[in-house]
Design brief:
Helices cover 61% and strands 4% of the residues. The chain is mainly alpha-helical and 220 residues long. A two-stranded antiparallel sheet has the order 1-2.
């Protein structure tokens, strides 16, 4: 995972957002922390491991995406179908060239997508604070060998605790140390907890970064 490249991409995205939204001179750090905490909750919701009250505790890693060309119908005449509410007019079925009549254009991984959203805000906070992040392979290996104390929920709560401490403490050294611990736990949760590879994480970040630029272009 090329963190240096990702830092550069996040810096460009953040600068674009600040410029185009007219946010120059504003302290956006509290918003960014709030956004990260929110995204971590959405990631956990897709992970589902903590939902002991549910029969479905499997992480949501697959979702079919409707083909945009045919609106998921598989038929290039889908607009005529929609207009013919009574179904009396009839139509000629024409297989969609984009999805070959399947109605879907691929499979997305909602859990990994939410993880990539969290990654964006981790990088944004580090950039705003001037904190250096790196991968700690020894820590990941320890978790792979010994597991998480308190299970996945224990690791998630500890990550949140360190993250909040990185905002609430007054001492900058303590803030940075806690943020780095939260970061390492975040990476370990992805790799050890859900089996993501570093290449998958980087690719998911790149994809979502492009989406975020597109959203800015479209006035999101």
């Amino acid at each position: 995972m090329n963190l240096e490249k990702m830092f550069k991409m996040q810096t460009e995205l953040d600068r674009r957002i600040i410029k185009e939204k007219g946010l120059e001179g504003q302290d956006l750090l509290p918003n960014t922390y709030a956004a990260l905490i929110t995204e971590l909750g959405e990631f956990a919701n897709e992970g589902r491991w903590f939902k002991h009250w549910s029969d479905d505790q499997q992480p949501k890693t697959e979702r079919l995406i409707d083909c945009s060309a045919c609106n998921g119908t598989g038929d290039m005449n889908y607009q005529r179908i929609a207009e013919d509410a009574e179904g009396s007019g009839g139509h000629e079925y024409i297989k969609c060239e984009e999805c070959h009549g399947e109605g879907t254009e691929g499979i997305k991984n909602p859990l990994l997508e939410e993880y990539a959203d969290c990654l964006h805000f981790f990088l944004s906070i580090a950039i705003k604070k001037g904190w250096h992040l790196y991968l700690l392979e020894e820590s990941i290996e320890d978790f792979q060998r010994e597991g998480f104390e308190g299970g996945l929920s224990g690791a998630f709560l500890k990550m949140q605790w360190h993250l909040l401490n990185s905002q609430m403490f007054s001492d900058e050294y303590t803030k940075e140390s806690n943020f780095r611990l939260a970061w390492w736990l975040f990476i370990a949760i992805g790799i050890v907890g859900f089996g993501f590879t570093l290449d998958q994480i980087e690719a998911a970040y790149m994809d979502k970064n492009a989406v975020n630029h597109q959203r800015q272009q479209e006035g999101y």
